[in-house]
Amino acid sequence: MKLRLDALIELGFYGLSWPRLKQEEEKISVFLERFHEKEQGFLQLPKVKSALLSSLKLAEKLRGRFEDIVVLGIGGSALGVTCLRDALKGPFWNFKKEGPRLFVLDNLDTVGEVEELLNLDKTLFVVITKSGTTPETMAQYHYFKEKVSKENFIFITDPKEGELRKIGASYDIPMLDIPQNVGGRFSVLTAVGLFPAALLGIDLESLMKGAEDMAHSFQAKDMELNLPFQFATVQYLLDWERGIPMTVMMPYSSRLHTLADWYRQLLAESIGKEGRGLTPITALGVTDQHSQLQLYNEGPTDKLFCFIEVLKQSSPMIPTIENPKLNYLSGHRFDELMATELKGTRQAISEYKKPNLTLEIPEVNAYELGQLFLFFECSIAFLGEYYRINAFDQPGVELSKKLTRQLLS
Amino acid sequence: MKLRLDALIELGFYGLSWPRLKQEEEKISVFLERFHEKEQGFLQLPKVKSALLSSLKLAEKLRGRFEDIVVLGIGGSALGVTCLRDALKGPFWNFKKEGPRLFVLDNLDTVGEVEELLNLDKTLFVVITKSGTTPETMAQYHYFKEKVSKENFIFITDPKEGELRKIGASYDIPMLDIPQNVGGRFSVLTAVGLFPAALLGIDLESLMKGAEDMAHSFQAKDMELNLPFQFATVQYLLDWERGIPMTVMMPYSSRLHTLADWYRQLLAESIGKEGRGLTPITALGVTDQHSQLQLYNEGPTDKLFCFIEVLKQSSPMIPTIENPKLNYLSGHRFDELMATELKGTRQAISEYKKPNLTLEIPEVNAYELGQLFLFFECSIAFLGEYYRINAFDQPGVELSKKLTRQLLS
Asked: How high is the ipTM of this complex?
């Protein structure tokens, strides 16, 4: 992948010349040092092969036994796997007959509806919660536990502790680990994402290779080579010096729509604390040109636009259209029209003087997705240092949980 | 529906006492007068029965002939019908065997994938574009035109003019009207929403009755009775006087997730102009508590939270859980847990001093959805007057279209 800052830098309206960005370069070493002191595990995941191997092995053992997979998980236990499915199998995968379908049950009011779609005996439930006390997931587990046998469950949880680990041990249910030093929103390259992806036959080796290459870039002291640092620096300077607090993540690919959702959690939960934070917004090209572009162009200058451009897509050809108002479309493929609309929209947004940058990938594949996951995770590590906050906790969600427990009791 | 401002007013941190709000009351008459001068048609739609009757009649004629419906439309031609399907048939409707399935093809890169799911001969394509020059929709139309016969098409377009009207007339394709004084994002209660909804057997009479009742409330000079004016006033004052420019629309109902998407277009395109505007953000309870709540609670005070609370939902029971850390869940229904999480989260957000209000509806049904559509549309009419901008145009999207045409030619 490439990070293209050209539109942003050429605009010149935000003081964001390359020399200005380079002034920050010396922070890379300091930030990396502070980051390593926090002993977070996500950076090592691409190198540690144990999760990959155990996921593949268990998936191999189960192959062909189930028609449907249902992930019981929420937040970080749901978003990564949804993204893997949509990006690499397509957003319409569950309508295809190739199977297995993969449903992610990440809300409370859809349990009954999803249950009706399933042949329960032929459904594998993958229960994902690190603590084993996530109320939504554990309520769902206990609900389905009464309906199917223990052979229909796999648990993904803390390697040693927690309520789900205990249940798994007492019922002899196969379990995979979430390393203790990897938080939920950074867990997509643990068994949380890898095991369901293995069941779908996704190319995990390439995924991990892409991630490993980006983990390498994260350690580069040279700013030109450190893409995550470039991204974090742009976000931080625009917010801190220019009061631009929103990041719009806008892939021009339906397959990457849920990648934007995954990033939305990563940015919000990591950086939104102590009265500060960037607000993530997801948008989808070309669709949201017909919904949000008016605001983006003519509204306040309070958003950084982050396009994701896919160079190679495939799609059918638009036939010849005789109508003079429409014949400019004739003979182009649908994806060409999409790519051209991105160019037109990016140029328009630039002419409206709105800051924007582009993540460019050659195509949507496992390698590039692995790069993107680590690119975003590493940029968050730098952002945490810029804002001098701990990017790896989430103290602000406890009060709501406590009040819910009190109200239910 | 009810609009509950109690949490907001009791907070008292934003100067938003009821007496402060009441100071704005005298603007209602002025704003209504200015609105009526703009001669917008959406307010009359619930009373005009012609779109309802023609949609029902055509749907009745076609009943049973098609397995699938594919809407070719984007923006305002896609979001309303998606919302109607999800809210009243459920977000998993297309997986059920009751049929017909309803796909909304509102992007360019999914044409081939969706095509593979269809038995084309048994598919009805509903082509929706007012001008007949929307490139995405017209490209799709010309693509499928080569694959199926003209009996597989219905057009919904301008009653007199435009490219699609011409094609329909020359091929004798059944057509339904989008009134000329109704813009795309306000068109859900024209044939644009009503005809596909009629094919799904949705109760259109109740939908229109709900809308009509809210259109009545919009004209009330008494602020207590005018819910759209209350909502617009809160949004405007928080933005204008306190610098809170984002509106987070957060239904606690999976069925209403795409209602938030529909509102997202309505607010963004209507008010985002002349350097001003509110940024809409969609979130889903309880799911996004595990993704966004950290930012919402502990991040900057720059968002108005608008919860949608559904009093009556139905769902299965959570069985008895022996574990002492989880037995507070035992014997509650899933929807009770959801409702309680809303209460806990709302209380937490209030304790973090973040402005919030609640739209309360007794249940998700056609009547309440009709109320919600008009409530939001009417609030936009008032917001346009507060900001002194024309809420009914979208000049800021033209440049991108022009550049795209140039680049393709």
From this structure: 0.98
